[in-house]
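INTERNAL AUDIT FORM
Audit reference: QA-55
Scope: verify that the stored structure record matches its stored sequence.
Auditor: D.O.
Record contents follow.
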Amino acid sequence: MKTWLSERISREGGNRPFLEAANVTIQNQIHMKRESYHMGAGGSNLILEGIRVIDLSRVLAGPYCGAILGDMGADVIKVEDTKGGDEVRTWPPHKEGESGCFIVNNRNKRGIAVDMKTPEGVEIIRRLAGQADVLIENFRTGTMEGFGLSYERLAEVNPKLIYCSISAFGRSGPRAEEAGYEALMQAFTGVMSITGEPGGAPVRCGVGFLDLATGILCALGAVSALYQRTSTGLGQRVDGSLLMTAIGLLNYVAEGYLLAGVVPKALGSGASGTSPYCNFRCADNQWVFIAGANDTLWKRLAIALGLASLAEDPRFATNVVRVKNRVELERILQEAVGRFNREPLLKLLEEAAVPATPVNRVDQALEDAQVKAQNMIWQMEQPRLGKIPVVGFPLAFSRMESGIRRYPPRQGEHTDEILKELGYSPSEIAQLREKKVIL
């Protein structure tokens, strides 16, 4: 299979400036492969090796998208402003000044700091885009157009560019230009209304799942567009938004309303379509989640808890009636579960082949043997912190292995290196720095 770079060399074989730039790119790839081997991911034959990504985004959705592409082998260049940089650098918790959120979502990237509000800064981004395969941005809708860096303008320079825009509400409609944040979008889309205890206040999900899922979907979109480009030769715009992600992830909950007119409500740890399927408190005040998710599992659970007669009770015999009578059923089960300490109960349910689990804290989950067996915690060398654990890539492949090739960049760490690749001379770089266009 031809690589992206070999195809382009064949096409532009007589273009001396391109060949010189290609040579720089090849040397960079050699360097990255050597560094990859040094950091434990060598020889992985990652699918996106040779692909260059310009990551103009900040905070969470866009950076996570870039990190995914970087984990799959892309050369990702993170562009930050020349002042504070990505605001996530300030988000606690920190260790010796390093933010955990920044570290996990910006590994496998190089870094450049550019003032995009200057003409010279815009020219740097234009040159980067001219040599890139993918560009990621999550400015408020209209901002990139204001910079003169719209998809249409950059596609004139580089028709093969995949231009991935991430927004709150999408690029069209009455709210297109509004700003938005994770919790705001959970509130707007109804997610908060179905999260929390019945009758209680709306609750934000404990992790920024809309941001993260939007990053995943945009990475999928970018890879899909790259694949289509192999047959069309052309890039395209890929639009993602927290709004579209939220509506998509509401999935069966939203479809229940569209199809049957049922407005979903908060059910605590329960689920609208099945019962019993929720948390219960044990005698030792520890929690378990029990999934009697179908009629077979329900009968096993009833027998295991000494409630065999309930399995045939007309109020609880089938899932449909159990859902209708969930409040009474869960009250009865809580009384039964409350007689057990957690570990004996879990052993009892395991022997009865009823799915159940302790309700762990995050630290307990990360220390679990099953998580460790999945190789989800990687080790990374970081200049200030030394060797540190990092949450890994959540997919495994039989013919390639993702891993850490680069630690997250310091703000503007690779500015000179990247500008030289773009053809800037040392004197031009010095002038840009003197004018505060770059760090």
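Auditor finding: record pair retrieved intact. The chain has 18 helices and 13 strands.
Action required: none
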